[in-house]
Write a structure and sequence with these properties.
The chain has three helices and seven strands, in the order H-E-E-E-E-H-E-H-E-E. By secondary structure, the chain is of the alpha+beta class.
Length: 134
Amino acid sequence: MYQIKSIKKEQLNVFPAPIVYWIAESKYVDDFELRAIYCDDNLIGFLVFCKKPDSDGNHWIPAIMIDENHQGNGYGKSAMKQLIELFESMGSKRIMIGHRPGNIIAGEMYESLGFKKASEEIIDGEIIRLLQLN
């Protein structure tokens, strides 16, 4: 059975934009690609990435979300690995992602994938991380 679930109260500061906003924004932002994340036939998450680099050559990942019932099982990391492979196949050299300072789990996951802090500065409420590809 398919269910639409709300974001938990404690996640509101971590995930301030529900999926519906990303879907709507993708209709106006030419570059946003949206992908559902599945485990077998179960929809468990969602991600947004930019298919074209910005003026500095960075490909951005504006959002990755895993349903609360599936967090902690490695699905986010697996999805990120697949997305990194996609960026590599596209010839990308740099991937950028941001996360709220309080989202320690996301920060640790990004670091485990090789993302480094791009700066100590908090930009628009987020820590910005960079993955340099070969």
